[in-house]
Amino acid sequence: MVLQPKPAHPMGEHTLAIRNPLSEAVEVDTYAGKLHVEWDSNAKVTPMGQLPFFIQFLKLGGRFDPWVSDCPLHYRSNNAPTKVNVLGSLFLSILSGHNRYAHITNLMSDQVNSRLLGMSKVVSDDSARRGLSKIDEESGIEWLQRHLQSCYEPLLTTPWILDVDVTVKPLYGHQEGAKKGYNPQKPGRPSHTYHTYMMGNLRLVLEVEVQSGDQSNSCHSMPGLISLLHRLPINGKPVFVRGDIAWGTDNVMTQLEDIFQNYLFKLKKSVNVKNLIYKHHDLGEWLYINKEWEAKEDKLQLQGWEKKRRVIIVRRRLSSENIIGFESQNQLQQQLALIDGPEDIRAYEYSVLVTDLEDDIVTIFQHYRDRADCENNFDELKNQWGWGGYTTHKIKSCQFMARMIALVYNWWNLFVRLAIPHKHHEAITSRPLLLSSIGRLTEHGHQKKMTITSTHGDLTTLKSAYTRLVGFFDELKITATQLNYSECWRLILAKAMEKFKVNLETVNYIGLPAP
User: Fold this and answer.
1) CA distance 133 to 135
2) Is 226 exposed, middle or buried (0-12, 13-18, 19+ CB in 10 A)?
3) Most buried among 32, 78, 94, 427, using CB within 10 Å?
4) Is 304 exposed, middle or buried (0-12, 13-18, 19+ CB in 10 A)?
5) What is the pLDDT of residues 91-135, one digit of tens each?
């Protein structure tokens, strides 16, 4: 084999291909032909082009500026970010539907909405986390509680219902308070518990507390509930407190009775509760509520109770077409036993409610049925608003973020009700409709102009919503100079609650839809 002769002068290294920076155009092949693509990092555009309307809503109602100025966040360094930059960055992140601090990076190139909020820039996720850690826990919680209450306080003069419940937030690290407790979705997973208090059917969060995963019982919620009830004005107490079987205990009811607060809870099917059901099953004389449900009333004193309390037994007949069976596991094999009986057999589903209300049986039944909306609130807050995220090592920051998310959630829900009053829209539908669009900001002669290109298909609803908003804002601005922030906010809430017949002087329950 003959080897090739070595060259006298080596050719050297190969020349590497020059990569085009983002500022230079590149050529892309598409099915429509070649396309020239270029990046413009200096363009003043935003993916939330319709946010200025929401900013005007917050400005006229006096929501954002007082929230920022009252924040007990203080820096000593001259190089530290300002409060409005830190809180504004968290506000934009929450409103965008983020669930991690790292997602704030997605907003750092937005040069439009940050300026419209009075910010100079969007801070990094590290700056946002450090800012929360610098806030004193006691004063920070008091600050957020105060602004949460000022958000809904004008509505308290109308009779309303207080819903109480606890939801679980699974954790995947070594966070403070991460304990194993009641977690039906992920058994054995450490978690936090969110003890939540809401205004019935309006989807407004009154207060939320973050506690360890092993503190899901209602006894851990009672201090926060009693504290909330004491903070409310005398003429703004709820008509009654409503909760599920976790709240139907003597300890909870006794504490509420001591402060003369009415309640409506569901009882666990203990032995004595089952005996009560057996007793009334054969007596007849059931009150017909609707085509599915019947009810009866009685007095009951369970073991450990100091007195008898009013109970409502409700039952629903199961359809004869249902196949009823029991599933069991024997020697690692699942077995199913079907219940067969006469053709005219009647199967019923029973529940027992306990209350100190004096309303009739049908009204109490309907009150408890409306509580089912509370679970939808948790689903929206955890999956669409970030209650399932924004996790840090210290539980203090989780306390702050849970309340911040609740506050922004309240603001946005009221804004959407103002724009589209006929029904509630969850964030998964309201954000694409009223927030997401391409916005381009231009300035000429000290005049700013926003050009919006909506990508939503329902332009009819969009046009109707913003026609209503712009008309109301124009009317409000005429009289806003003669009113203070609280009076303007009161007018905004009255307009947003028109569907519920709430003009802050009526006597309908806020917890019930308007007829």
Assistant:
1) 6
2) middle
3) 94
4) exposed
5) 999 999 999 999 999 998 888 888 999 999 999 999 999 999 999
CA angle 265, 271, 277 (to 5 degrees): 70
CA-wise closest residue to 489 among 1, 62, 90: 62
Let me know: does 226 contact 208? Beta carbons within 8 Å.
no
Contact 181, 207 (CB under 8 A): no
**pLDDT tens track for 239-251:** 999 999 999 999 9
Burial of 183 (0-12, 13-18, 19+ CB in 10 A): middle
Return the CA Rg of the chain: 29
Q: What is the DSSP letter of 287?
A: E
Using CB atoms within 10 A of its CB, is residue 200 exposed (0-12), middle (13-18) or buried (19+)?
buried
Q: In this structure, what token pair is assigned to residue 101?
A: 């601090």
- DSSP tag of 284: -
The amino acid occupying position 22 is L
Q: Which amino acid is at 12?
A: G
3-class secondary structure, 299: strand
- CB of 151 within 8 A of CB of 407? yes
SS3 433: helix
Q: Are strands 240-242 and 263-266 parallel, antiparallel or unpaired?
A: parallel
Query: Can you give the pTM of this predicted structure?
Result: 0.87
